């Protein structure tokens, strides 16, 4: 796009200058012709040559009309009208007066010179044809006696006419020579501008417009050459794939202008570390790749990566704010990890992603198991996309029991995947891939819809039970969760108070106004909010007050050995007491023994779930369980 704009700008600018120059030519020639015609008109009036006077007046009128056409932006029509009319008038003057003895004859070369400079080739040849035809007509008429032409005596009048025509001719030739010199200078300048523009275009083709670094295409070409050199010299080549940590947060909070400024600043610092023999490119939005030539071993690449991280860790001054960021770096080596640029880049990116998982601001050297893991995750993602369309997802329900009275009050919906080859898969086999690929949004909506439909089916069998559904952070950020809940409740007919949405403690770290408003809107709908796995994350009383949740679910890690671990018993006791003081209910997860159930009951825990009561059940099996449990109660 930018290259097209450069070319278009050059062409338009050059065309405009040429058009202005042509208009100046026409005005100059027009003025000279008017001056000559006025001189001739004066002479014809003085000697009483009325025919010539009329012809000259017509020529003057034609030139004035041509000036008007030029002023209105129609120079081509002006040139054609003026030259054609003048040629015809001169031809008439020669036929009516002295024939080839007429001084007007020398006007023909002048007209041709002017036509050759400013008119089209077709008009030039048309004018020449008219002139040759006029000369031929006069010559043969005189030769065969049809008409006699007599020269007038030479005097001041003849001198004035001929001199005027010669002055116009000379002026036109002098002006044309000057224009040719000017044109030569213009062409030289345009050539220089074109070479500069071509150099800029060539630079843009191979470089990133924002940072001035090499782009992917140029980088791949350079790395290919470096690989060939390393292969010939039997040396090692390293690729460092660098990603700016938390760039999206900075870009979203401060705006794209600040984000671009940060990228330029990061690129500037990275350039300081690059050797002349190395190559650095901007590979994507906040990603950079460096190729290190002729290194001794992986330790050299690691040292450069650490130097890069050290340089980037220094504060940046952006928009009057001081920002601190870091780099996650992945390293791949030639010939160990690949023999071409694409493979090395791919494997260094995998290593970078591993550095991201390890907590950012670190570096990882590629290992083959990373590639195997990457292929496996890709296979899972592709199969998971098909699982949604093939209806391979399943919901299992684990009963939730009220400890006081041992009543069945609801169930937690737990997702499973009925894989056509690997059988029934639990979420830990595919949930990470679903979240990273964005499929979790579609899957999460399916879970909410199916859970509400199953809860309504229980009601049709006389069982008014609540259902709990886990949410992901991606569903929260999609900004359509509220509309999804409203649509599902309306379509299924489930009462809002029977739907409970489970949040993780990490989600509560979100401090945006939009997140707070979303939770308030969900509460207004009548649905319940619960904090899942409470105690394993960022437990904070201020979160409970701010987000107005209804229930805490104590993680099973505190519940499993409650009967033998005094520390866990103290933690569970404190959680229950704190929750009740805030008017929150408590559900304990992972109960497997009756002794643990009795302890929780004595501590005042409200609800419980776990293998002691039932494993997660398919919808039909859960319906049978609920019926029998209700009958026992």
Question: Can you give a write-up of this model?
Answer:
There is one protein chain. This protein has 633 residues and is of the alpha/beta class. Helix content is 61%, strand content 15%. The protein is built from 22 helices and 16 strands. The strands form three sheets. Strands 8-9-11-12-13-14-15-16 form an eight-stranded mixed β-barrel, surrounded by four helices. Strands 2-3-1-6-7 form a five-stranded mixed sheet, with helices on both faces. α18 (541-547) links the parallel β13 and β14 (551-554). It is elongated. The two termini are 74 Å apart.
Fraction of residues in helix: 55-70%
Radius of gyration from CA coordinates: 45 Å
Apparent shape = elongated
Question: How many helices?
Answer: 22
Secondary-structure-based class equals: alpha/beta
Mean pLDDT: 83
Spatially, the strands of the biggest sheet line up as 8-9-11-12-13-14-15-16
Give a quick account of the main beta sheet: strands, pairing sense, barrel closure: 8 strands, mixed, barrel
**Distance N terminus to C terminus?**
74 Å
Query: What is the tally of beta strands?
Result: 16
Low-confidence stretches: 1-10
* Residue share in β-strands: 15-25%
Short description:
With 633 residues, this protein is α/β, with parallel strands linked by helices. The chain contains 22 helices and 16 strands.
List keywords for this structure.
61% helix, alpha/beta, 15% strand, 8-stranded mixed barrel, 633 residues, single chain, 5-stranded mixed sheet, disordered N terminus, 16 strands
